[in-house]
Amino acid sequence: MMNTGIVERPTAQRVRDTLERLGTERDVWVSTAHPEHGPHQVPLWFLWDGRAVWMCTGGTSVTARNVHTEPRVRLALPDTFDVVLLQGDAEGFPAHEVSADAAQAFADKFGWDPRAEEGSFLYIRVVPRMVRAWRGGRELAGRVVMRDGTWLT
């Protein structure tokens, strides 16, 4: 394995780095599955509200249909060297039922408000139960930074 010069971070630093990325990044890969049709993966814009990831997709999209059938999802930030993977249950909110605070925060971040669009949209909230974070092979051990919804220190 190639030495990249990366120094292994303690868990508390990995948590801080993960929270910073959740607060600043724009895109997340969303992995859903349907019991009959199998896995589906798509990138979506996301908002981190300090406790949950919020995304929005078309109300009839494969992602929307999958989370109704099987709410267990995995999310991945798009950097393959500075990996952050989240696992949790998705909860869908039609645009007319989403909390005003979440919808406005999403609109403020992206300059796009799905509630004002034609057609149906589904906001998806995922409160992570498990988060893994690592940079390179040296950090594979200890990569779990959240377990059962609690950040580790």
TrEMBL record:
Residues 24-134 form the Pyridoxamine 5'-phosphate oxidase N-terminal domain. Pfam families: PNPOx_N. Signal peptide: none annotated. InterPro entries: Pyridox_Oxase_N, Split_barrel_FMN-bd. This is Pyridoxamine 5'-phosphate oxidase family protein. It comes from Streptomyces musisoli. The lineage of its organism: Bacteria, Bacillati, Actinomycetota, Actinomycetes, Kitasatosporales.
